[in-house]
Amino acid sequence: MRISTRILLGAAALLLLAGCGWFRKEAPKSVEGDDFAVVGATVFDGEAVHAQATVVVRDGRIQSIGDGPAPSDLPAVDGAGKTLMPAFIDAHVHAFDVAGLEDALRFGVGTELDHFTAVAFLNQRKAQREGLERTGAADLFSAGTMVTSPGGHGTQFGLPIPTISAPVEAAAFVAARLKEGSDWIKIAYEPGAGFVTSIDRETLFAVIAAAHEQGALAVVHASSLEATRDAVAAGADGLVHAFGDLPIDDALVADMAARGVFVVSTLSVIASAGDRGEGPALAADPDLAPYLSDAQKGQLAQNFGMPADNPYRTRFNLDQAKANIRKLHDAGVAILAGTDAPNPGTAYGVSLHGELSMLVDAGLSPLDALKAATAAPAAAFRIPERGRIAPGMRADLVLVDGDPTADIGATRRIARIFKNGYEVVRVKPAEKKVAAVKPALDAGEVSDFETDLSSALGVSWQTTTDVVAGGQSTAAISRATPGADSAGALRVEGMVSTKFMFPWAGATLAFSGDAPDGTTTLDLSDYQRLTFMARGAPREYILMLGTRTSAQRPAMTGFKLTEEWSEVSVDFAKARGADMDEVYWLAITAGRPQGEYWFEIDDVRLQ
Q1: Which of 181, 328, 506, 515 is the most exposed place for a label (fewest CB within 10 A)?
Q2: What whole-number distance in Å separates Cα of residue 499 and Cα of residue 503?
Q3: DSSP letter assigned to residue 33
């Protein structure tokens, strides 16, 4: 058979294009529903490894795991060269909004175990975790409000939370936490910390006993050897931090193993507190970086900045914490992977991959590190249907390239994620961004309220409150007449409720709608401050900024008002974490304390 020159040249051209990268295999199509099979993957089921197994999913749950081809009526996902695992469980976070839960799932974390958040937010999220609907967010389980003393850990943030002072209060205090929605009881016990108070040893014992009498787990925040010793003696089910101040002794290790006490590692936050955080390395990892939001990048770049001569810093010796974890693990104590995100140097989801690497550095095998982020936390916290690939379990799954049971770094090479049996489309945040716009302002004027509530930034003033996060604060805006030596001003009035952990209520200019990565952002980098005339009920007020690096937790700085008109000048540099290159929104609000408020603003300018 003679082959024409044209055919030969065409074949050569195709080969050339393939070699240059122009001719590539199409990316696998997403699975549309919650019925499919993964074929040919190595399967880590949360406890053991299966070579080249077939996992069948129907109606969002695992139907079977075994050999053979996919059922003919199901779409098949090619798992060749890949490892299928349960979606990860981060055993220590603090979750405050849905955006954080979405960040977690984007990195393969299907469930977050929270140890201090607003109970209203927790209760809002319970419907999701109990159903099997399609979602783009991780499930949330939480201790809600922690148990702490007046002036104890948890109160230093200025949050109005209930506290306990004596053992006699324990039963009622625990009952109140469980009634309001807490999934377990978390106790802060920090004797000798110096910067916070602590419940005493007797109250610690009483609270743990009360939790057990009422059918709840009791876990303890303790950051020192001696605090850990007391917590174990008191009957704690688990410790939500490792500690690094001193080597753990053999007697305590044996006692913990005998009692079945588990330990959440939180090496990520221990490293950050000691200025050896993993954040910058995670942000630079080519497998992780494309999926980081700007807010996550900002968080990973931070550390605690704790002075070297601070006595409390001795509790955050990373090498000692790793050595203690190794000794506990070798004795059979269950180690759970947790990050304490979003503390400085950590971010939801992505930091769990760093935590797994640090657990391996501490002496765990890659297989045991994976157990610490899947089956182990599900069992320790009694979280149903998660952490395993087994018949009846919900299909929360992660498929990665390579073999993380041999190389823990392979967890970062995520190929596909499934939540409740539905495939999660991993969108790179940068692909959704639009270049920020520099506003053209006449002498920096934003709003003068002479005729209406509009602004020169293209949007009008609107109300903003913590209701969107489960709070109960209120705000109403109107145009008041006269203003400060002018025809009009913006008036805001309402009530601040401390039902939410970080209450706020006021007025906002939202440039990108509700989405942090929305279609419009403003570049305000040419300006250093916001100035305005203002008066109001005497109390603290807040300038809040949602920016590229502070989208999930706004950058804030405060100011005070009296009932007389005065000029207010607020420097953006005082709002820690704000990046004025991309501003999604700004707001002027009332914060705590609880109660009614009112304020008026006029002649708002950028300078």
Answers
A1: 515
A2: 8
A3: S
CATH pick for 445-606 out of 3.30.420.10, 2.60.120.430, 3.40.50.880, 3.30.300.10: 2.60.120.430
Distance in angstroms (rounded) separating the CA atoms of residues 74 and 32: 11
Q: Count of residues for the chain?
A: 607
What is the per-residue pLDDT for 3?
A: 31
Of the chain, the end-to-end C-alpha distance in Å amounts to 80
Rounded Cα gap, residues 314 and 4, in angstroms: 78
The answer to whether the beta carbons of residues 361 and 76 sit under 8 Å apart is no
Residue type, 361: D
* pTM strictly above 0.85: no
SS3 sequence of 491-560: EEEEEECCCCCCCCEEEEEECCCCCCCCCCCECCCCCCEEEEEEEECCEEEEEEEEECCCCCCCEEEEEE
**Amino acid present at 408:** I
Within 8 A by CB and 6+ apart from 9, the residues are: none
Task: Identify how many contiguous H helices and E strands the chain contains and give both numbers.
Answer: 14, 27
Q: Tell me which H or E stretch contains 564.
A: none
3-state secondary structure 80-114: CCEEEEECEEEEEECCCCHHHHHHHHHCCEEEEEE
The pLDDT score that the predictor gives to residue 281 is 96
| Nearest residue to 95 via CA among 137, 134, 130 | 137
Which letter does DSSP use for residue 438 in this model?
Answer: P
Radius of gyration of the chain (CA): 27
Q: Which residues contact residue 34 at a Cβ distance below 8 angstroms, ignoring those fewer than 6 apart?
A: 57, 58, 59, 60, 132, 134, 395, 420, 421, 422
Number of other residues whose CB lies within 10 A of the CB of residue 361: 16
Amino acid residing at 36: F
d(CA 411, CA 371): 13
Q: Domain-by-domain residue ranges, the chain?
A: 445-606
* pLDDT given for residue 289 in this prediction: 96
| Positions of the chain with pLDDT lower than 50, given as ranges | 1-26, 514-519
